[in-house]
TrEMBL record:
SMART domains: ZnF_C2H2. Residues 10-37, 38-65, 66-93, 94-121, 122-149, 150-177, 178-205, 218-245, 246-274, 275-302, 303-330, 331-358, 359-386, 387-414, 415-442, 443-470, 471-498, 499-527 form the C2H2-type domain. InterPro entries: Znf_C2H2_sf (IPR036236), Znf_C2H2_type (IPR013087). This is C2H2-type domain-containing protein. It comes from Branchiostoma floridae (Florida lancelet). The keyword Metal-binding applies. GO terms for molecular function: zinc ion binding. The keyword Repeat applies. Keywords: Metal-binding, Nucleus, Repeat, Zinc, Zinc-finger.
Length: 527
């Protein structure tokens, strides 16, 4: 009857809390005493609630007592089953009056409303931190205690959060509990299923709203980075904490994102590349990589900018482009103040300070700070050149090289100078041009006083003093101080003439020869 009368006879003698049931008061008192009498015999996890211990034990036993009566789905927690049932009914009774957001659970709506009110009811009792969600407070408290009670029995991975352990376990079990009701797709995480469902419905209510309103309710407390997606913020925070929760069970490698771990795991497998391009024979271990590769043949650019006519074949390219509109560079290096529009760019930059070279060649001792450099190196072992230009037959081992090459046919110059009308096909050319405005040349040769605006240019110059020729031909004894000279030399062996005049069909092995031909023959220009 107290649920109707509102009577709460059980009072806390340390604060204003009161409860209708004694068991609720007992649980509350544990917050004051810190008492956690219930302990897991497997990993030492302790909790103030017996029901929480029962849920925790299921992470070890794999027990899933909550069954769906409409399909084979089962769950270790009743709340997870309730969320799943909504997939069958489609019912989302709870709606936000501010923006129309709908959800299956009342608690989700309460959390969502805080994105409008900025309310943060969960307070840390050890510092000034407050959060809109209890799970965020729990994550924060782990920084004070260092406690990681949740452990994976397969590989020893430990975490402060039960939900993180549940997600991690799926890397071992292959479980994908989130099913699409319109096709055979399934996913290990709900947000991945949500992204997939948008392909069927075209519906992206929250992201679309964010584009119109500019609403980015999720903010990083370290650097002010804001985003429309909570999952993006979680990933961003790892740039500050250094957390790498995804562990390889075959070596010491760990990663901040699951996609990076998936890429790494292919190094341990047999090297099988089941996905093949029917156009040119390119093979890969990942279906998504094949989809990206096919766009080099089809010219498909599905990622559109909503502020101009720009479109891209890859989402990462669109993200880079969007930064030209906003000027936003939320990722900052704590060592030197360098800022970047993308987290991956900051990660690469940080290696200039740490000297870290995580990408290892499995055929020799070579290691590098960037995956693209490893891909280039591996091509020396395999000789593979999967990327083909359908205009002139030019082939290359690197996708980015093909993108750059295609601009010789299209005339595309996407890199614009913000101080004059200059534009360039490559970012390196734009950087060189910008130095003409500033006149700055910070890099100096200690041998002869030569100065330049670019560190790579100084490195190349130093070889005139040292005689170093690091670029070796694998078919003869030729070596070169510059990579482009080696490429020119290789055409002696292959007979390849990738540079073609669109005016008369003239072909040549060297880009400089084509430039000279175009200038003298077609434009009449005399340098």
């Amino acid at each position: 009857m107290r649920t109707h009368t509102g009577e709460k006879p059980y009072k806390c003698d340390q604060c204003d809390y009161s409860a209708a049931r004694k068991s609720n008061l007992d649980r509350h008192l544990a917050k004051h005493t810190g008492d956690k009498p219930y302990m897991c015999g497997e990993c030492g996890y302790r909790t103030a609630k017996r029901s929480h211990l029962a849920e925790h034990v299921r992470t070890h036993t794999g027990e899933k007592p909550f069954k769906c009566d409409q399909c084979d789905y089962s769950a270790s927690q009743k709340s997870a089953l309730n969320q799943h049932l909504a997939i069958h009914t489609g019912d989302k009774p709870y709606m936000c009056g501010e923006c129309g957001y709908r959800t299956v659970q009342k608690s989700h709506l309460a959390e969502h409303m805080r994105t409008h009110t900025a309310e943060k009811p969960y307070k840390c009792d050890q510092c000034d931190y407050s959060a809109a969600r209890k799970c965020h407070l729990d994550q924060h408290l782990a920084k004070h205690t260092g406690d990681k009670p949740y452990m994976c029995g397969e590989c020893g991975y430990r975490t402060a959060w039960k939900y993180a352990l549940s997600l991690h376990m799926r890397t071992h079990t292959g479980e994908k509990p989130y099913k699409c009701d319109q096709c055979d797709y399934s996913a290990a995480q709900k947000n991945t299923l949500d992204q997939h469902l948008a392909k069927h419905t075209g519906d992206k209510p929250y992201i679309r709203l964010a584009k119109h309103t500019g609403d980015k309710p999720y903010m990083c407390g370290e650097c002010g980075y804001r985003t429309a997606r909570r999952s993006d913020l979680s990933i961003h925070l790892r740039t500050h904490t250094g957390e790498k929760p995804y562990k390889c069970d075959q070596c010491d490698y760990s990663a901040a994102q699951k996609s990076n771990l998936d890429s790494h795991l292919t190094k341990h497998t047999s090297g099988d590349k089941p996905y093949m391009c029917g156009e040119c024979g390119y093979r890969t271990t990942r279906k998504s990589h094949l989809a990206e590769h096919m766009r080099t043949h089809t010219g498909d650019k599905p990622y559109k900018c909503d502020q101009c006519d720009y479109s891209a074949a890859q989402k990462s390219a669109l993200n880079r482009h969007l930064a030209t509109h906003t000027g936003d560079k939320p990722y900052m290096c704590g060592e030197c103040g360098y800022r970047a529009a993308q987290k991956s760019a900051l990660s690469r930059h940080m290696r200039t300070h740490t000297g870290d070279k995580p990408y290892k060649c499995d055929q020799c001792d070579y290691s590098t700070a960037r995956k693209s450099h490893l891909d280039q190196h591996i091509a020396k072992h395999t000789g593979e050149k999967p990327y083909l230009c359908d205009q002139c037959g030019y082939r290359t081992a690197q996708k980015y090289s093909l993108f750059q090459h295609m601009r010789t046919h299209t005339g595309d110059k996407p890199y614009k100078c913000d101080q004059c009308d200059y534009s360039a096909a490559q970012t390196s050319a734009l950087n060189r041009h910008l130095a003409s405005h500033t006149g700055e040349k910070p890099y100096m040769c200690g041998e002869c006083g030569y100065r330049t605006a670019y560190k790579p240019t100084l490195s190349i110059h130093m070889r005139t003093h040292t005689g170093e020729k690091p670029y070796k031909c694998d078919q003869c004894d030729y070596s070169a101080a510059r990579k482009d000279n080696l490429y020119q030399h290789l055409t002696v062996h292959t007979g390849e003439k990738p540079y073609k005049s669109g005016e008369c069909g003239y072909r040549t092995a060297q880009k400089s020869n084509l430039s000279t031909h175009m200038r003298k023959t077609h434009t009449g220009e005399k340098p």
